[in-house]
């Protein structure tokens, strides 16, 4: 087969039947909570087409059977990686970071505070830009006083592909262009390939972990002062979103904050959070659970 024939073959999309779509979308929902409606058929085809062809399958039903019968679970992980959306950038939705700096940080970092432990969770961290933005902001706000605090940032995602990139912490020029030059100089090292690697002192602030929101319980006991879960629940149905919101509530310290995406709206759901402003919710300080 010639190079041109290889390219032409790769560009041909395998069609998907309603039955195949229903099988795959139900599997994805059960395993990840991502809810794919009928109009997402083209998304499944475009994102899974290459992997189906690479595995020499001629249809999506055979691929589905392969995934559910793979004892290693690697086929499922690979499928989730392809379906997951990993679009992000540094200081995305700047309003949240301004709110942290102007209102939340002054609450968390009074000079007189005896408990110096601060915990922040980037839930759905993708390739790391969000959690590193939080680390940069903390460094900028606290300055040299940061050494007086025990600050821990947890960053989780369901996609191993995204987590590998996040742990590498290397970004192209276009990914950092929007950052102030002084911030780039302070927090990145330029590589031989003209890319930008996050400095070790920043990376040491962050713990990256794989996490599936569909797990019955989160695998950690400690609570958080701030949780970022932005542009994740847009992929979930009401039932899944409500369960996740409740788990976030019980994962926060009293007085803790939940930040969601500005395109998301949980006001229509019954939950225990106090509404602060668009995309910002708070666990009331009197609630100890």
Question: How does this model look, in words?
Answer:
It contains twelve helices and ten strands. It has helices at residues 3-11, 18-32, 41-54, 60-68, 74-83, 94-108, 129-142, 160-168, 173-176, 181-187, 200-203, 238-251; strands spanning 117-123, 150-157, 170-171, 188-190, 196-198, 206-210, 224-229, 252-260, 274-277, 280-282. A seven-stranded mixed beta sheet has the order 6-2-1-7-8-10-9. The longest helix is centred in the first third of the chain and has 15 residues, at 18-32. The protein is globular and about 65 Å long.
CATH topology of the largest domain, which one? Rossmann fold
What is the CATH H-level superfamily of the largest domain? Vaccinia Virus protein VP39
Rounded mean pLDDT score:
89
> How many structural domains does the protein architecture include?
2
**How many whole angstroms does the radius of gyration measure?**
21 Å
In percent, how much strand structure appears in the residues? 15-25%
Largest sheet: 7 strands, mixed
| Elements, N to C (H/E) | HHHHHHEHEHEHHEEHEEHEEE
Class by helix and strand content? alpha/beta
Gross morphology is globular
DSSP helix fraction: 40-55%
Number of strands: 10
Q: Could you tell me how far the N terminus lies from the C terminus, measured between alpha carbons in angstroms?
A: 64 Å
Helix run count: 12
What would you say about this model in short?
This protein has 289 residues and is α/β, with parallel strands linked by helices. It has two domains: 81 residues, Chemotaxis receptor methyltransferase CheR, N-terminal domain (Chemotaxis Receptor Methyltransferase Cher, domain 1, Orthogonal Bundle); 189 residues, Vaccinia Virus protein VP39 (Rossmann fold).
